[in-house]
Every structure is written in C-alpha cells, then in structure tokens.
Specification:
- By secondary structure, this protein is an alpha/beta fold.
- The protein has a single domain, classed as SPOUT methyltransferase, trefoil knot domain (Alpha/beta knot), CATH 3.40.1280.
- The longest helix is centred in the last third of the chain and has 15 residues.
C-alpha cells in the first residue's frame, strides 16, 4: 500500500465543523488525519459528521493522547508546526513527503514552548488584511495544497 504523502495533525481541536471539513480535505487528498489530545467534541457529533459526512468513512482518522505519543509513533518523521507567529511563510518552506502538518487549537494555537523549540520547522500563512487569523480548515487546506504542489502530487 502506498504511503500517504502527508499527515494533518490537529492538536485539541475545538470546533466540530472545522474537523469535519478537514476530514473531507484528507479524504480528497489521501491524507491521514491525526486527532491529538482532548477533543472539544465527540466524533459522533452531528456537526462534525455533517461537514464531512459523505467522506468520513474514507478517511484514515487516528487518535493519539498526546503529541509526544505521536512523536514516538513517527520517530523519523518531520513535524511542521503552524503558527501566525512563525517567521517562515508556508510558500517559502520546502515540504517533504511524509511531513506531519501540525495545527493547534482554534482559540489558542500551539504552545509557545513547542514553537520555540522547533522554530526551524514552524511556518505561517501570510495574512494581508486586518483579520487576526484564518479559519482552521482554511489554513489546513492552504498548507496541505502547497505541500502537495511542491511534491508534484497535483496533476
């Protein structure tokens, strides 16, 4: 079986429709979805299922209790952390197949100490207007499709 080109990791997601939309994105691209830590909803939640209902059964969804546990499961993989505070724009970062694209909670993002310890693999999506952030599912789509584009997966 072919390895998935990328993995999306959601750390403690809080909003069911975001996770449902990201599950649909993963189904459309053959991307594994990892849900890490305490979820702000049940995966039986109607809003979650409604957003990704047609495709939920096709998505490889994996659950992990912590980011540390995920690191243990993928000891040689590269984790790419997203933050509006990162220096490197996503379009300047060189993605590699097998990268785990990590997104934090909608209200808090990823922990500052995690970002500081991994600054060389932290990316941001430039925001050109007065808004403070993008929706989580929009951000996941932007980053994943840039990674797929760079690796020649979009045909």
């Amino acid at each position: 079986m072919e390895q998935p080109p990328f993995h999306i990791v959601l750390v403690e997601p809080e909003i069911p429709p975001n996770t449902g939309n990201i599950a649909r994105l993963c189904g459309a691209t053959g991307t594994v979805l990892h849900l890490v830590g305490k979820l702000g909803f049940s995966t039986d939640d109607r809003a979650l299922k409604r957003a990704g209902l047609d495709y939920w059964h096709t998505v490889d969804v994996r659950y992990c209790s912590s980011l540390g546990q995920l690191h243990e499961a993928f000891p040689t993989a590269r984790f790419v952390y997203t933050s509006k505070k990162a220096e490197t724009p996503h379009s300047s970062f060189v993605f590699q197949e097998g990268d785990l694209l990590v997104f934090g909670r909608e209200t808090a993002g990823l922990p500052e100490e995690l970002l500081a310890a991994n600054s060389s693999t932290c990316i941001r999506i430039p925001i050109l207007g007065p808004v403070r952030s993008l929706n989580l599912s929009t951000a996941a789509g932007i980053v994943l499709y840039e990674a797929l584009r760079q690796c020649g997966r979009l045909r």
